[in-house]
Amino acid sequence: MKLGAITYLVRDYDEAISWFTSALGFPVIEDTDMGGGKRWVLIDANGVHLLLAKAVGPEQDAAIGKAGGGRVAYFLNTDDFARDHARMQAAGVKFTEQPRHEIYGTVAVFEDLYGNGWDLIEPKQKP
Question: 113-116 — which CB contacts under 8 Å span 24+ positions?
């Protein structure tokens, strides 16, 4: 078995598509109209698929931006931290801290369009 997709709650499909494609460079691999305002939208996060799901009702609306319950929810690995950090900043991505060097690699926390926490990480190379 293999995990096929992870649900990512959004307020609006098009604003989320715009953010993921412009800020992170992730392509849309499917956008199918399901009728009644519902769409099946898959974003390819370099092999991991995010299923954009438009929140319906107050409970789901309240959950937008709280994927990690106040902690970092998503971890984005890179092979060139400086390059991707600079590109993301130029695209308007909000980093909440300066890059730091940890035992596991170079990392900085950023927020997506809804305030979910993400780590941009360049893992240390293993010998």
Answer: 113/15, 113/16, 113/19, 113/23, 114/9, 114/10, 114/11, 114/64, 114/65, 115/65, 116/65, 116/66, 116/67, 116/68, 116/73, 116/74
Q: pLDDT per residue over 82-110, tens digit each?
A: 999 999 999 999 999 999 999 999 999 99
Cα 35 to Cα 63: distance, rounded to the nearest angstrom = 24
DSSP one-letter string for 11-22: S-HHHHHHHHHH
Q: Reduced to 3 states, what is the DSSP secondary structure of residue 2?
A: coil
**Using only C-alpha atoms, what is the Rg of the chain?**
15
Superfamily assignment of 1-64 in CATH? 2,3-Dihydroxybiphenyl 1,2-Dioxygenase, domain 1 (3.10.180.10)
pTM of the model: 0.92
Give the tokens for residue 33. Answer: 């109209």
